[in-house]
Amino acid sequence: MIAPFGLICSTIMGSTETTFYTIALYTSAVGIKKIRFVLIAALMADLAGMLISVAICRFLS
Questions:
Q1: What HEC string does 28-50 produce?
Q2: Cystine design at 46: which of 1, 15, 16, 20 (Cβ 3.0–4.6 Å)?
């Protein structure tokens, strides 16, 4: 059986892995200089992903 911490950590990493990469890539492609609101929205989505991944891993184990 996989340890609950390992399962939760790998799920969180998979859901939040590319946040800063996609922000840098998409804003530079369009030419956006101020990324404050994009960063806030992305970090809120990461937090939601973390909470949901913990809930799902607890439900499955």
A1: HHHCCCCCHHHHHHHHHHHHHHH
A2: 16
The phi and psi torsions of 21 (rounded to 5 degrees) equal -65, -50
Element counts in the chain: helices (H) and strands (E): 3, 0
Three-state SS for 20? helix
pTM: 0.69
38 CA to centre of own chain? 13
Give the number of other Cβ atoms within 10 Å of residue 57's Cβ.
19
Structure confidence by residue, pLDDT tens digits, 16-59: 777 888 888 888 999 988 889 988 998 898 888 888 888 887 88
